[in-house]
Structures are given as structure tokens and as C-alpha cells.
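Continuing the batch. This is chain 6 of the set; chains 1 through 5 are on the previous pages. Same settings as before, nothing changed between runs. Recording input and output for traceability.
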Amino acid sequence: METKQKLSHTQKKKGKKTKDPCSVCDKELYINEDYSSRVGLLDDNDACVGWMCPYCNTEFDFNNKVTYIMPLDVGRGIT
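Output for chain 6:
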């Protein structure tokens, strides 16, 4: 008699979190399959031209290339 192998060990586990950190500050941007915490950047004609990390305010283009990095001393009250 032939025994059937259980499929439970071959099935992918659900709920595995995808990693999507900011390449500058390493904070996690992933929320879920449909949403990210990235902030869209608009030009004067309200066209989306890139995105910004909500944690370090670094700006990126659509190829994830850095277009602007916030200076470290801005907003820290350094006198």
C-alpha cells in the first residue's frame, strides 16, 4: 500500500512580513501588500515625481536613487 506524503511542510507560510527599509535611515517602510509609508513628492503640476522617507526626509526618484538628503543638524535645535 502506498502512503501519501503530507503537504503541510511544503506549503508557504502565510503572514511572512516583507522587508522594505529606507536605504538611508534603515527604518521600515512596509505596511502591508497594498500600502507603504512612503510620502509622494509632487511637482508644480501635481504630477508625482518621486517619494520621501517619512522618518529621515530623504527624497528619492522612482528608481530609488537619492535626490536629496536632509542635513543632520536641521531641526535639532543645535545652537
